[in-house]
Amino acid sequence: MRSDIFCIISAIKNDYGVFSYDERFNQLLETITSIKTFSPESDIVLYDTSFEPIPESHLTILKNLVKNVRLLHTHPAIQQCKEIVGVDLLILKTIGETYGFLEFLTDLKNLGGYNRIFKIGGRYKLNSNFNKQIHILNKNKIVIKNSQLWESETYPLRLWSFDYAMLNQIMDLYVRIAILNSTPKIVIIEYAMYELIKELNIPTHEVTGPIGIEGLMGLDKSQIYE
Q1: How do the domains of the chain map onto residue ranges?
Q2: Would you tell me how many other CB atoms lie within 10 Å of the CB of residue 103?
């Protein structure tokens, strides 16, 4: 059994949201640096769900910083989203995050065992409130920020984790989310995660205090500090 692994889901080459490409790239570098600072023994992989590939010079930088980089611009679901004119940002985020993380989960089976798997958004970074022991001690449970009321109950998905032993459960969860989003009505991923975790009875520990992440939202640059 190896150490822990962080999967970063990003979409830095897309032109939706308020940040420029250079801003998104620099935010991603800050994400990577924060993981190396607060969890230096962990592996890091990057799954980018942009519509276009990252420029080669920047891709080289990223490959030198993390264990693996996968660009998913040719993924059928990502390409289908690209063709939809005027699609809502939250829908684009849902599709990208769902299929990006599904690709990671599939690859994870071939990477071998890890202790703990963390998912983090590419616009956010760990801070001094990050306490890995909370994640490690809640064995065989999802560890996630406590649910928030946003039209209906949701789970914030900027940072969460699960044990490697739960891989099949998490794969089933994301397959269910993908099936939901193959229908004409897209279910925003924060809503879908909350509903399906409850429906599938997946053991979960909700962190009521700070989970240890910060950053700026892509919609309006509002500060997130959780």
Answers
A1: 5-225
A2: 18
pLDDT in tens, 174-197: 999 998 877 667 788 999 999 999
Residues 117-152 have pLDDT tens digits of 999 999 999 999 999 999 999 999 999 999 988 778
| CA terminus-to-terminus distance, the chain | 30
Query: Dmax of the chain from CA atoms?
Result: 46
The highest-level CATH class for domain 5-225 is alpha beta
Cα 76 to the chain's mean position, in Å? 19
Q: Give CA separation, 176 vs 20, 57, 80, 98, 172, in Å.
A: 33, 37, 19, 10, 6
Sequence-distant (≥ 6) Cβ neighbours of residue 32 within 8 angstroms: 8, 44, 46, 62, 65, 66
3-state secondary structure of 109: helix
Q: What is the DSSP string of 165-180?
A: GGHHHHHHHHHHHHHH
Angle at 80 between CA 79 and CA 86, to 5 degrees: 105
Q: Cα–Cα distance between 60 and 174 in angstroms, integer?
A: 30
Q: Is 106 helix (H, G, I), strand (E, B) or coil?
A: helix
